[in-house]
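Q: My collaborator sent me two sequences in one message, no labels, and asked for predicted structures for both. Can we handle them in order? The first one she listed is below.
A: Yes, handling them in the order given. First sequence, followed by its structure tokens:
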Amino acid sequence: MHILHEQIGAPQFKIKAESKNSASLVVAPLPAGYGLTLGNALRRVLLSSLPGTAVTALKIDGVSHEYDTIPGVKDSVFDIILNIRQLKLKKHSKGIEEVEIPLVKSGKITAKNLKVSSDIEILDPSQVITTCDKADSKKKMVLRVEKGVGYRLVSNEDNAKEENPEYMLVDANFSPVARVHYEVNPARVGELTNLDQLKVEVETDGSLEAENALKLSASILESYFQLFNKEEAYTDEEFTTSFEAIKKKKESEQIAAAAAAEAAFTPIDILGLSQRTLNALVNGNITSVEQLVSTPMSQLSQLRGFGQKAKSELEQVLSERGYSLQSNNKNNDEEKE
């Protein structure tokens, strides 16, 4: 971590889930340029490396290629494939599954007509696949559904390797992330005005919660960067730090401050004041000699139960012990003038 964080503090992050499908991440403060560095890295991982579900192949009775037509079906096979690529599915296991869609005599065929197992969830049942008009209801379509990552582009080699020639391979986009947007805004800590604030907004198709998508992307990036420091990690203590180092430094500072405050605390009871005067001071939240001598007489005079007798007693006791109130010094200087 940048050594600047010892001065500006560790960056704080907040993930806000707008819904299951939408979330935003805000991280600040960051050194100048780090907003762009982290934002771009997260965006690329979100779009390319998260697991999702897609249709990878299609088989239709009596159809041999994607430019064919189906009797009684209004859409061409090519249009049907485009609609099928828009299906929002969630597959729990990694294996391949074949899903049937029976044709109907007339009417729309939507995602809810898919005959799926318990391993697959249909996230948008209203997605239209095609529309039938006097189609043969004995015919059916079969989809090959897989779980994977990234974007799989079908090549000639893939078609050649396909064992079942009835299947038409489909370009598959497995990414569950529908949209990623990040922006870098200026941030300030004290006199430092050239810091960054990173905001990342994510929308998913529902197969992976947006908040979990952000966390998983960060985990993937971390696993790759650990490769560089797996053995004989190199650090430069003068210009780098870590969350743990910042935390330990802050804790040690708090312990030192508490110890200093405790060492500088002298109970007011040792002055031997009368009970009335002591009660007036304690009720005014003055419990130590250090607090007392630093409090002006004008402020002490406003305490309930602190009258002229208490004032005279306090001045005498403090004088005997070598202490003096702030106002006493000031008044003496004015009298000398």
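Q: And the one she listed second?
A: Here it is, processed independently of the first:
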Amino acid sequence: MPTYSLTLEYDGTDFAGWQIQPTVRTAMGVFSDALRAVTSETPALTAAGRTDSGAHAHGQVVGCTLERAWAPDTLRNALNATLPADLAVRTVAIRPDGFHARRDAVERTYRYLVVCREGRSPVMRRNAWTVRGPLDTDAMRSGAAHLAGKHDFAAFGTAPRAGGSTIRHVTSVSIDHDALPDTQATHPGEPVLETVAITVHADAFLRGMMRSFTGALVKIGQGRATPEWLASLVDGAIARDPSVSVAPARGLHQWSVRYEPKPTHQELAA
């Protein structure tokens, strides 16, 4: 009974999150239906994380064990021929027995996309948060520096399980600014698209943590708070802080999950 990991990409706009729910469309529900249609099996699934309703994934990792052995490319192609347009399997890999997509993950990466402009952004409305720009990215970087390291992030989110720890280890936070110019000079000096991407690498995330990080950093970028305000929230709360706004889900992108390679049976025997 081989064990597989499947890396999924999906547009979360029309999904009520990852986890199966009885009355709404979810990414896990759609994927489970396709897996059953292709394999005639209904295996237990593990997932690296649960995305929010409306949030997107580029590297959601799902683990399962099947009774029948499949060549990875064959399984991927068969699933993609069955899945709807807003969900696809990027890769399939064979994993050692006991692989668990959540417990075995050693690092997760989330990215949040912000569009800076005065008016609406019709093209980006499904996958980014449009805010009044520009943002002071230097101030945002100063604030982000206080988030790196092992801290209690209770001010920014809640543990997935009741009574669980709110301590997480943030490896790094980066703020990347990009402005694509108007090459036809229709509006000289005004970019066609100006974005700020916030990328966070951590061992794990609390519920709402990445969206709260973004809300706090945008607040700093707009000059409505200081980096020192953000520093005061780290390790200093026992619950979500009401001064931290939660950015909308549409700009959140689950980016990737990293695993340490495990030895195979042959390597263990040697």
